[in-house]
Design goal:
alpha/beta, 14 strands, two-stranded antiparallel sheet, TIM Barrel, disordered C terminus, 8-stranded parallel β-barrel, 2 domains
Length: 475
């Protein structure tokens, strides 16, 4: 299996002499390798360690790709053509002119899919580039001939769970079928993107690396890039230092680069959130040598969803200290589109887009916000996301929470701010306490609060109305 050549070569990334990596050939096993010691199925999967640490080689450029119109549509009601076009425009503005959202992928199967592709192509945006997704079947390759699409993703399932159990093939048969489809795409001048489905349950050195090396050979022969989408289909990837393959995210990235010869720009991480790890796994993939991470808007995707586009936009800003031209305020437009146009009910505590992500209910937090919003707001949400912080009234709000609500919703500043010692605030607090003493279990709505301000502080209410200021009600 292993042929260690051991010649020495200078590594340009480290400026040191390195021995050349081992060569790994396809291991065509007679029965599937299912890692039952890690994935017993009747129990929760385990996370084994081997204490092997791989180096962090962050690419000089990283970016986001999108799967909202492919994986995203597998988890919700289908979008209309107009809705796809609207979201595609938002992706363009969110990613900015530097193409931080580099690509997005489409199905090609239905008439609606085809109309959506045509409508988006007519916008003639450079970013995100429109790509396709097909199965590893000759009939699907024919679909690509109808469109001038430069890149197509191909489903190349990589674990023995899929090869033996779903496809009813041997590794060699799957290997040969995949390579045949890739050669067909190369002959058409189309960039293949191989989706290594279920890589976190695959035999990395017995199948994944030999297949990756063959793809790199085909790419060199055709002088056409072949990308590898590293699909953590079951969300099993982990990032703890020293974890074992096949679950180790950084180990997979290192193996593909060091032993598979896959350059960073040809690697793309695609993760799911089954174990709450989609964001940290994607960020780790970036840091360890994978240039692209594949995401969907709001994380909508199969089962628990994909890595959210908006999450990785903020992860990028945190890791690299700038946004590279992204317009993060578009994230709020996306939220509003999903709520108002698509009637999607988003979890209220969802970071960056949830109704309550920058809302406080605790009186002690509200008091701090009024003194300096930096104390309890994660960043300037108004400037960055066009969403000022908000205050919600419950039985935990107290005088501080009520005065904060008044000041926020009536935009009072400086000497105009209402103190928690104001007589009207005390009356409002008494009313709130009575509501909950009588058995109320819901929050006090903004509409109710405005009516109470009208009752207890009529001068403030009338001043706002008389000068034509709109009182925002978020209920």
């Amino acid at each position: 299996m292993v042929q260690n050549q051991n010649p020495l070569k200078k590594n340009v990334r480290t400026n040191r002499l390195h021995s050349m990596p081992d060569e790994y050939n396809l291991v065509d096993v007679s029965s599937p390798k299912l890692y039952k010691n890690i994935f017993p199925y009747s129990e929760v999967p385990t996370i084994p360690f081997n204490d092997r640490i791989v180096p962090m080689h962050t690419p000089s450029e990283v970016w986001i790709t999108d799967t909202s119109f492919r994986d995203g549509q597998q988890a919700r009601a289908p979008y209309t053509v107009d809705q796809i076009v609207a979201l595609y425009k938002m992706l363009n503005r969110l990613g900015g002119e530097n193409g931080m959202i580099r690509q997005t992928e489409f199905f090609l199967y239905t008439d609606k899919d085809k109309k959506a592709v045509t409508a988006c192509k007519e916008l003639d945006y450079k970013f995100p580039e429109i790509t396709a997704w097909i199965r590893a079947a000759a009939s699907d390759v024919k679909l690509l001939k109808q469109f001038d699409i430069p890149e197509a993703g191909v489903l190349t399932s990589i674990s023995d769970y899929h090869i033996f159990k779903k496809m009813k093939m041997t590794r060699r048969e799957a290997f040969d079928q995949y390579c045949g489809i890739i050669k067909d795409l190369l002959s058409m001048g189309i960039r293949p993107r191989c989706h290594f489905e279920d890589i976190t349950r695959a035999d990395i050195y017995g199948f994944v690396i030999p297949f990756a090396k063959e793809l790199m050979n085909l790419s060199k022969e055709a002088n056409i890039p072949i990308k590898i989408r590293i699909c953590d289909t079951m969300g099993l990837g982990v990032t703890y230092p020293g974890t074992s393959l096949p679950r180790c995210v950084q180990g997979i990235i290192y193996a593909l680069g060091e032993y598979g010869g896959v350059p960073p720009e040809m690697m793309e991480w695609h993760g799911h959130n089954d174990f709450y790890k989609s964001v940290i796994n994607a960020g780790t993939a970036w840091l360890y040598g994978c240039a692209a991470v594949n995401c969907s808007l709001l994380g909508i995707g199969e089962r628990t969803g994909n890595t959210p586009v908006e999450a990785m936009a903020f992860e990028y800003a945190q890791l690299f200290g700038h946004t590279n031209g992204m317009d993060l305020s578009v994230i709020t437009e996306v939220k509003q589109f999903f709520e108002n146009e698509l009637h999607e009910k988003l979890p209220s505590n969802l970071p960056f887009v949830g109704k309550d992500f920058n809302t406080t209910r605790a009186g002690i937090h509200a008091d701090g916000l009024m003194k300096d919003e930096e104390i309890y707001n994660i960043f300037d949400t108004k400037a960055i996301l066009n969403r000022p912080f908000e205050v919600a009234i419950t039985d935990k709000s107290g005088l501080s929470g009520i005065s904060a609500w008044i000041n926020v919703y009536f935009a009072l500043k400086g000497i105009d701010m209402i103190s928690k010692d104001h007589e009207a605030v005390r009356k409002l607090n008494d009313w709130v306490k009575t509501e909950y003493d009588n058995g109320r279990i819901t929050i006090i709505s903004d509409t109710e609060m405005i009516e109470k301000v009208k009752e207890f502080i009529p001068d403030l209410y009338n001043k706002k109305v008389n000068i034509g200021q709109y009182i925002y009600v978020k209920d």
